[in-house]
Write a structure and sequence with these properties.
The structure holds 2 protein chains of 2 kinds. Chain A is rod-shaped. By secondary structure, chain A is mostly helical. In chain B, 26% of the residues are buried. The chains are: A mainly alpha, B mainly alpha. At the A-B interface, helix 1 and helix 2 of A face helix 5, helix 6 and helix 7 of B.
């Protein structure tokens, strides 16, 4: 911890110029030390949050994959079933397979929107750490 | 190498045959019953005193209530509290089953897709019933987004229907896949420890997979909670769609 400032120090009016200089030197020194501690604490908090968000990245990746694949499967099964009923193999299967893919992309986009909102609420707008980019 | 899949085997504890169907009481059913008994007795003991200044047990009960109630209020609003018993029961059941699975030697109920699919189907049917009961045919507006030109509307509607039907699949697969993968990984690293111990001079490498197994155990405890949370969160969102289909 930082030492408490010397509150009992002489009032400025009673100080000789040398004393005043030393006093102000101690003040700026204290300010520097406080600033360093604060910066360290902010950096730690940000690193913790960043690590947490990275840990969740894996879970979110799995989720996106599940969203996409599930819709493709459902589309394929619907098409296959319709083909089986109507005897139009393989055309409806192909059509609904593609529609399922579109639905999967829709699912992923919606999941991403939700995720973005959740992240924004936690981190104040940025996902993960900002990495310097040539395109910026 | 110890078989990493062996832990998911079902055994009949009490064989029951009902009209030609095998409805035996298995180890999976036993762990479900255990989860329900644990939950019920915990909440009965924790809420017995009902003191204004909660004891530690009572605080745990209150925190779990607040956690689920907060989720419901946030995603549905105040009228969502009507579905609190359903959502709370889902969350606690999945959470306790996941956590019971973390005890070495215990069976993980949620690592079987038949269980998670049954839960997801329950949510799906609830959404359908609630949606039609509350909104009648207006519930179908869920599939007809507003502001879409009429000539692409049929296409968009079909896509929306497929997207809606895919919900129970992704809902159930996510919980099941996470639990299954986590427990297999744990078992594989545990198997490495045993194999290295019996591999002569390679035994000096044993601490590496052991450390990994410890780290993955910690991760799995987090996943057990997180997946219960995600399942409940999605349930809340789907219920919200049932109550407010117009977006």
């Amino acid at each position: 911890m930082v030492d408490p400032p010397d509150k009992q120090g002489p009032a400025p009016a009673e100080m000789t110029p040398q004393e005043r200089a030393r006093f102000e030197g101690r003040l700026t020194d204290l300010g520097d030390r406080l600033g360093k501690v604060k910066a360290q604490r902010d950096a730690d908090a940000r690193a913790d949050l960043d690590a947490e968000m990275r840990g969740r990245g894996m879970a979110y990746g799995m989720r996106m994959a599940a969203e996409l694949v599930a819709a493709v499967i459902v589309g394929g099964v619907i098409g296959w079933g319709l083909d089986w009923v109507l005897g139009s193999r393989p055309w409806l299967f192909l059509l609904f397979f593609l529609l399922g893919f579109a639905a999967g992309v829709l699912n992923v986009m919606r999941a991403y929107e939700r995720m973005q909102r959740e992240f924004a609420a936690r981190t104040g707008g940025s996902i993960g750490q900002k990495v310097p980019d040539n395109d910026d | 190498m110890p078989d990493p899949i062996h832990q998911f085997d079902l055994h009949r504890i009490v064989p029951i045959n009902l009209f030609g169907w095998d409805v035996s009481f298995t180890n999976s059913a036993a762990f479900m019953v255990l989860a329900v008994l644990l939950t019920t007795s915990f909440f009965m003991v924790a809420t017995r005193a009902r003191s204004l200044v909660p004891t530690r047990l009572q605080s745990v009960a209150e925190i779990s209530y607040e956690f689920v109630a907060g989720m419901l209020r946030e995603s549905i609003g105040k009228e969502g509290m009507k579905y609190f018993p359903f959502v709370f029961a889902l969350f606690i059941f999945i959470f306790v089953c996941n956590m019971l699975g973390m005890i070495p030697g215990a069976f993980t109920v949620t690592s079987h897709i038949v269980v998670t699919a049954a839960l997801a189907a329950l949510v799906f049917l609830t959404v359908l019933v609630v949606g039609f009961a509350k909104n009648g045919l207006r519930f179908l507006k869920l599939f007809v987004p507003s502001g879409v030109p009429i000539y692409v509307l049929p296409l968009v509607t079909v896509i929306e229907v497929i997207s809606f039907l895919s919900r129970p699949i992704s809902h159930s697969v996510r919980l099941f896949a996470n639990m299954l993968a986590g427990h297999i990984t744990l078992k594989v690293f545990g198997g490495f420890v045993v194999m290295l111990l019996g591999a002569g001079s390679f035994a000096v490498l044993t601490p590496l997979p052991l450390l990994m197994a410890v780290a993955i155990t910690a991760l799995e405890v987090l996943v057990a909670f997180l997946q219960a949370y995600v399942f409940t969160m999605l349930t809340c969102m789907y219920l919200n769609d049932a109550l407010h289909p117009g977006h």
